[in-house]
Design a protein that fits this description.
Blueprint (H helix, E strand, L loop, with lengths): L14 E6 L30 H14 L2 E7 L9 H11 L4 E6 L8 H7 L3 E5 L5 H7 L5 H14 L5 E5 L9 H10 L3 E5 L7 H8 L3 H11 L2 E8 L2 E8 L2 E8 L12 E4 L4 E3 L8 E2 L1 H5 L3 H13 L19
Parallel strand pairs: 1-2, 1-10, 2-3, 3-4, 4-5, 5-6, 6-9
Antiparallel strand pairs: 7-8, 8-9, 10-11, 11-12
Helix pairs in contact: 1-2, 1-10
């Protein structure tokens, strides 16, 4: 029996579940976890959740509300041991849901085809700059060539349309936005520019690096042919442009300048097995402990309460880090 929720809840027609499978990452991006080691410290759970436990948690969510979309995040999800098997099991559990993944692309090239075959529908690859020196300054532990190879492998594996996620940063890409749009257009990919949020390591960078989506769009319209607005899809406001004669969809996600709390249908399970209903919330609710002791009622109650609270705008930005909850 499904928990009764208010008709006004944005999740009434289905949940978009973001599942962080690890807090570990092989990059050290300045706005996320600069200088941190890639090890995965669960910081609260007695042991990390197994793949079977992650699948079970997703199953418990589905008991409360249908899941329309699952996105695997991190940290870097491709660091998760058995990630292809996990995708396969989630596909069996939720055959009608869209299953996506957000990755930094560093390990994607050898895994793209296997992920597609396992049932992964959609890929978002993070790419903040095409300049090797700027990439190294932003993400000193990574290699631009590895990300680019991962993107090419994703295109070859049939992820269509591939999405490229770019965090707007004045000193990294603010003066070269059009080059990223041209790169996406050449691969029939959709690029999405995301405002920097004042969370975790992004907070001290925010005053000098923030570039609004409106300013980014204005800069692009000065440099590329503009075909007009396409409306919103999910959290992205989309526009059609042309680059090198190709039509390309350019999306803008504006959590700072234009928050979308009232229509948010996302629930997150973080890398410690905690339910996080809102990015701006400081704390989550532990689901892993009740799962391990077989307390399904506690899990259902926490999920129902989280669903009922969706659509309420939050005001303050938390002190939490982003990499444990997957954004």
């Amino acid at each position: 029996m499904r928990a009764a929720l208010p008709a006004v809840s944005p999740v009434a027609s289905g949940i978009y579940l973001r599942l962080s499978v690890t807090s570990a990452c092989d990059l050290r991006c300045a706005y996320c976890r600069p200088g941190s080691a890639p090890s995965d410290r669960s910081g609260g759970a007695p042991r990390p959740a197994s793949n079977d436990e992650l699948v079970a948690l997703v199953g418990e969510v589905a008991r409360v509300r249908p899941i329309r979309k699952i996105r695997l995040t991190g940290g870097e999800p491709l660091l998760r041991r058995g990630i292809v098997d996990l995708v396969r099991e989630l596909r069996r559990l939720a055959p009608r849901a869209t299953i996506g993944m957000t990755t930094n692309g560093q390990r994607l090239a050898p895994l793209a085809a296997a992920l597609r075959a396992a049932g992964l529908d959609a890929l978002n690859v993070s790419l903040d700059t095409l300049d090797e020196r700027r990439f190294g300054r932003l993400s000193p532990a990574g290699a631009l060539d590895a990300t680019l190879a991962g993107i090419d492998a994703a295109v070859a594996a049939g992820f269509e349309p591939l999405k490229i996620n770019t965090v707007l940063l004045r000193s990294i890409n603010g003066d070269r936005l059009e080059s990223l749009v041209e790169y996406a257009a050449a691969r029939d990919a959709e690029i999405r520019f995301i405002e920097l949020m004042p969370i975790g390591a992004g907070a001290p960078l925010y005053p000098r690096e923030f570039l609004s989506a409106a300013d980014a769009l204005a800069r692009l319209r000065e440099r590329l042919p503009y075909d007009g607005p396409l409306g919103a899809r999910g959290t992205a406001v989309r526009h059609a442009m042309r680059a090198d004669g190709r039509r390309v969809v350019v999306g803008f996600i504006s959590p700072v300048s234009h928050p979308f709390c009232d229509g948010c249908d996302r629930l997150r399970i973080d890398a410690r097995g905690r339910l996080v209903a809102c990015l701006r919330g400081e704390e989550g609710v532990d689901l892993l402990a009740p799962l391990r002791r077989g307390d399904r009622a506690a899990i259902a109650g926490a999920l129902a309460a989280a669903c009922a609270g969706k659509g309420r705008a939050a005001t303050d930005w938390p002190t939490r880090t982003m990499y444990g909850i997957g954004g």
